[in-house]
Amino acid sequence: MLAYSGPLGNAATLTGALAAGPGATMWILSSMSTGLAVSLLAAGALADQTGRRRVFELGAYVFAVGSAVCATSATATQFVIGRLVEGVGAAGVIATGLGLVAAVNSDARAHSAAASWWGASMGLGIALGPLMTGLFDLAGLWSAPYWLLAAVGVGIAIASRWCFSETAVIPGRRLDLLGAALMTGGLGLLLVALVEVRQGGLRPALLCAGGAAVALTAFAISQLRSRSPMVEFALFRRGDFAAAATAAAVTGAGVIALMSFACTFLVTSMGMSTLEAGALLGLWSGTSAVSAVLSRRLVARLTGTAQLAIGLAATGVGLLMLTGLGADSTAGQLIPGLLVAGVATGVLNAGLGRQATATIPPDRAAVGVGMNNTTRYVGASIGVTVVGVLAAAPHDDIAARLSGWNHVAVLTGVVSLVGAAAVLALVRFGRERG
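^ MFS transporter, sequence as received from the core. Prediction below:
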């Protein structure tokens, strides 16, 4: 998450240092999430079938290589390639990390504690990323954070051999190479289409969207016919699994989409520096980290589904509190909403981690985490595109920018509230079918 959110803290410096145009700047901000989204499910399937520690270690090394490429980049193209590689490597770490920690202790409370710390790490990473790059930027060292991330990646890879034992693999199950290729290609084309929409490239967006539809349809057909599918669609008949996937997608399309846009809005419309904007948004992400750790106390009182529904509903309330900005408004008006959304997001992140492994058979845990995070990042990509299009306004028209913010804050808040209702409805529907 440090790497994911880092460019938000020094986007202007990166644009200048790499001579990036508007399109390249968009890819600088979108490339790591693209690498993550297209690789998570395949990484999870590979981990369940070949060993989770092996994939975790490999992912950490790949992440380190991608970070080194970013640190040594002289052009925007090189930097984007490095970010894509970072995303692929991070997918291996994210898909396997929660399952590896859970495997250390089979106790349900230990699993919930692991999920809480996982959720906290998500929030803390998002909070620290822009601050880290912003501080290095003040010293004229924009590449230093990526060298630091490369060193951390190597350290994590080495430490994994000491901290985790290798997990058992699924006997007699083959890796679905065709499914992996179709799914990766389909998601890749879909995400490229969304980035092109944000840049105003309608024709390439339509071509990529058409290719994505063909590839993902072929993927679905291949999974129904495969003896060893990557995704067992029968799992979606389980209300709790479908609810967890829905909650992850809504989290991406709601709070993550708005907060991804918030830094740009604060700089262009509220007159803040990128470092100041990152610090303000740290109220949301930092609060979510603390909330995620404390939320483990809810395990004995709430089901996983109830935790997701409450988290989404409260997040929606927090996002709605961010509306009502006018010409005389200050950034301080956003603080109450950021704090409420932060507490709720922490509860939500911990619940997503909890349900990612609880709603799927133990031998498919990495696929469960991969599916959970894939839907989150795809939802975020769709949400960021919609938010960016709806909030677009001329640079010198502050009133239009403020109005755009109010509209997208309402939209993402409503999306979160509807998502909470959908989570409860899916679980109820699953029980009735069962």
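The mean pLDDT is 85.
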